[in-house]
Amino acid sequence: MSTVVFLLAPQLHLLDLAGPAQAFSTAADLGHDYRLQFVGEQEDVPTAQGISLRASITWPELSPDDLVVVPGWRSPEHESHAKFSASTLSRLSAHHHGGGIVASVCAGAFALGQAGLLDGRRCTTHYDLQGELARRHARATVVRDVLYVTDGRLVSSAGIASGIDLALHLLARRHGPGAAAQVAREMVVYARRNGNEQQASAMLRFRSHVNDVVHRVQDIIDFRFAQPLTLPELASAVSVGERTLTRAFCRATGMTPLRYQQLLRLERAEHLIGHGATVEAAARDVGFGDARMLRRLRNRGSDRPLPARRAAPES
């Protein structure tokens, strides 16, 4: 079981906390072993939205498999640096140096900076705070206008709702994109990514329709995209004819089920290649028999093929 510790500062923003907490809680409901704990320097933690939260002042024992998340806050002095004690900041630093992941939402990046974790690293925060973060931590590279930034075991996100994107990214990194897509769907949000990848995952980019049959087929493909899947098999699984499924799928997504599967394979392969895998290894991992098909798909005019037409709205 992995522990996710949320470090709560006074005047924290509820959604900075609730978004990622809900994502990991949903992942636990879906069978992934997560335990959430909330710690602070005081037991009663007032929030910016007027409600107080109860935190533990005792930290749990942490291992490299665990995660510490620092949600953001509102400062009455209009300065976003945290007022955590040296011992709390030392715990953040020790967890990271011990092999664990440390993440921040919004102004939480200032706590990471105070802990010495931003020096020489890429990071981000809410767009209103980026200038201040860059001034206070000149040795950090503040990346502007992105949802989140990953630099090794340090992950920082922009403001408020982007904490959900950060959590989904961490879940995808640990459990794969299918698991993150399932959590996102349960939460009725779009899975997003950052860096050189498209911010909207293909698994969620083509979900803005109301056709339940197509959603069920997409669920099958999402979780088995690396396996051989045939149109007869998919049609049988949802109890419709092959032609009916193809028409409905094209109308809802703008592509055939096979094209959708290829897109998921390509997107996952690009992710693996971007993290150091060879083309051959990525091709095998996503289900291509060899690297030739992957190379052909990557060389088709754009590294990221899009459907030939936009999905038509459903009545």
TrEMBL record:
Pfam families xref list: DJ-1_PfpI, HTH_18
Domain HTH araC/xylS-type: 215-311
Top-level lineage group: Bacteria
Keywords in alphabetical order: Transcription, Transcription regulation
Coiled-coil residue windows: none
This protein's record includes keyword Cytoplasm: no
Alphabetized SUPFAM superfamilies for the sequence: Class I glutamine amidotransferase-like, Homeodomain-like
InterPro entries tied to this protein: Class_I_gatase-like (IPR029062), DJ-1/PfpI (IPR002818), Homeodomain-like_sf (IPR009057), HTH_AraC (IPR018060), INH-QAR (IPR052158)
Name the record gives this protein: GlxA family transcriptional regulator
Organism: Catellatospora aurea
Taxonomic placement: Bacteria, Bacillati, Actinomycetota, Actinomycetes, Micromonosporales
